[in-house]
Amino acid sequence: MTAPKRTKGQLEMGENIMVLFAIVILFGLGLFLYYKFVYQGLQDVGGEISEQESSILLVSVASLPEIGCDDTDACLDSTKLTLFKSFSKDKLQYYRNKWGYRKIWAEQVYPAIKNNNECTPVFYNSLEYPENCKYWVLYENKPIKAMESIKVSSIYPIYFPEKDVFRVGRLNIEVYR
Prior knowledge:
Largest sheet: 5 strands, mixed
Order of helices and strands: HEHHEHEEE
Number of strands: 5
C-alpha cells in the first residue's frame, strides 16, 4: 500500500528542513571557527606590536635627561633614579598620557644585592648605600583588571656619583593588557 501523497510531501518537506538545518549549523560553526582564528591572530599581532613599542620605549626612557647620566654615555644615574619618583608626582598626568598602563623600574643586577628594598631617599642617605637597596620604581600605573602583561628589559650601567662607580643594572618595562 502506498502512502497518500499528502504524507509523502510532508516527509520530503521534513527532510528538506533537516538538511537546511544541518547546513545552517555547519555554516555557523565555520563562521565561529573562522572568527576565532582571526581574533587569535589579531591578539598575537597586538602582542607583538606592544612588545616592539615597549622596546622602543625602553630606549627612550633610558635616554631621558631626568634619569640618564649627564655625559654622552648611555647609563642611568642612581641619584636621578632615586629622585625621579618624587619629581614625577608633580607631572603624573603627563607621564600617564605618555606611558599608559605600564610599570617602569630599574634594578641593580651585579654585584648582587642581598635585600629586596626599593631605593628611596631614606636609603640613599644611609651609610650602607648602595648595598642597602636593589631597585627604583620610576612609574607604575596598573589597571584595575589586567588580563596579561608583557615584560621587556635591557641591561644598562648604573652610575653612583657619590662613590664614582658603575654597576650593572637592568631597566624593565612591564606592559599591562
